[in-house]
Amino acid sequence: MTDSTALAWSWNAKRQPVNPNTTDEPAQKPSALAVWLALYAQDESEQREQAEALSRAAEEHLFSIAGCDPWLRDELNNALIEKAKRHAELHRADPLTLIRDDVANLPDFLRKPLESRIKYLEKSEDRRHLPVYLNEVVAPSLKRIDAVRANQMSLSFRAMAGRDSLDQLLRLPELNQREVKRLSTLVAAHIDMIFIQLCDEMLTDELASPVVILDLYRRLATEVLRLDVLPPAYEALRSKHNRRNPINYDLIPGALARMRCADWWQRKLWQLRNEWREELLRAACLVHRHASPYVSHDILLQKREQRRKAMDFFRNYDLVNEDGDTLNMEDVVLASASNPAHRRNEMMACVKGLELIAEMRGDCAVFYTITCPSKYHATLMNGKPNPTWDHSTVRKSSDYLVDMFAAFRKAMHKKELRWYGVRVAEPHHDGTVHWHMLCFMRKKHRRTITELLRRFAVREDRAELGNDTGARFKSKLIDPRKGTPASYIAKYVSKNIDGRGLGDTISKETGKTLRDSAEHVTAWASLHRVQQFRFFGIPGRQAYRELRLLAGRARRDLPPVKQKPGKELTPEILAALANARPVINNPSLDAVLAAADVGCFATYITKQGGVLVPRKNYLIHTAYEPTEEPGTYGDHGIRIYGVWSPLTGKENKICTHAHTWKMVKKAPANSGAESAAQGDPVAPWTRGNNCPPDQK
């Protein structure tokens, strides 16, 4: 084909080859890109030669000093001492210079934002702000950074980092993802070497007893704990004096395989790196309302990129079951509780159900706010360091609230007091956790419960509060004439998920709109592994979801019946309804299913047995079973099977997940032949595609 007009593009036409060795035509002039690449290569070569020359000169100078006479060596040492004295005098004369020198020695992720702020203040018209910033913010932050580093790197951690090739552990917050991956391989190899040594030492017999293997696991887990990483299945396998359940020895093989796996170590070290990095940024006063509220810019961008990659992954995969049915994975994810809109709607439906239950029982609603003591807060509202901060992490502040609430709940149960409701965990501007709780209780118990909760909320560091405990604990009785309980909690539910419905409402904590702050809050919860929402005193919501799946499947199995809105039921519809059978034969269980199907959480709670009922007395529970195929580490995980009821027994459980789905990568949208017809670039020819499409 010689006519270029028949081709998709004119430049696809056949050209006469040119041999520069046989033709008389002058050589083609190199392009600008080729010239630029040649200059770049030449410049890189010159820089490499200069670096090697400087290295050789420094080495020769070092050896010349070592081999010179003592008098010259003393003179050089005295010159260095005099230089150090001059620097010390300069720092005494101008202490700000010392602060700036210390900032210059920080890691890049700390140095760059601090220097950027310093340069901005240098260019400002009012020069008085720079000394104030250096003395009142940067200088205390440098001491806080050193203290946080000392807390992060314990003696056992430093001892582990002193092993061969593990010195990069001391720079863990500074490493990027590729460096962490390389380090995780070295750590896994080191743990594997210890495992082999323990096997040679302890497993002398071919058939070792489970007790010996458990002892081997515990000794290997001790090595893992030195790196501030919790070993897998540690709580289930560690030695306890008050153990209630027998030890599950089947967990040991999978736990040992994980501790020797580089991929497992990469996830753990990357998580530890992010947490340590964030705490150092908090110590440097870079996480607060005037800089970056709730979480640093670094983590915010990282979580945003992680979310983008996850959505790209979902778009490129399908879910296929054993029958060949295919579902778009992105549609499945967006239809689940992972969708913020669905998550918010389900939570508000649950809160509305609690409100209706409380109205039916005659209970009152109280809104509580509980805050940590001042020693857990890193930064003041004006952006300056908090002098009472004891270098506690965000995770430690969350653990404080959990432990306090557990102690209060134990004391409340001893007094035979009960309540139900929901609590929301959200961050202060510096990342410290505080709780909002919407609780329902009997009116006669309200004052007793409130005073008991106040006593537990303010008992730590009580002296710093004086007579006013409002900074640590607040309570508000909800007046139905002013607003419903659901309306009180709706703002906190939305601002901690996606900010939907808040519009341009400004947050008093950050000074920004609540909708813009939602991304910061979700990144904060993901980084520090904080459970944002928790319902208590009511049946579990997972059984509610499984019942809705069961009802939806039963509805799809019904024969299709056409019925116009507003018309009377036809004989065909009446016959179809007469032949329809209940999904669950037991009337009590079928009533729970019907309540979940229509989405009435109040009726669902009532039919399950009501609020403040022990979990074992609920009518319907979620059923679980081991997975059929082993996972990456050879153990069988647990998956949701369906629902079961104590009325019928576990042997009569109902399956809500009848199919097994597998991820399959989607095929490319266009084949090579279609791309060539459109003039797009195609894949290179191989033995498999080196023929026209119609001849394959």
From TrEMBL:
InterPro entries: Replication_gene_A-like (IPR008766)
Keyword Acyltransferase: no
Alphabetically ordered keywords of this record: DNA replication, Endonuclease, Hydrolase, Nuclease
Residue ranges of the region described as Disordered: 1-28, 669-696
Pfam (any one): Phage_GPA
Gene Ontology process terms (BP): DNA replication
GO MF terms held by the record: endonuclease activity; hydrolase activity
Chain ranges of the Replication gene A protein-like domain: 179-500
Nucleotidyltransferase keyword on record: no
Functional summary from the UniProt entry: Possible endonuclease which induces a single-strand cut and initiates DNA replication.
Family of the protein in this entry: Belongs to the phage GPA family.
Protein name: Replication endonuclease
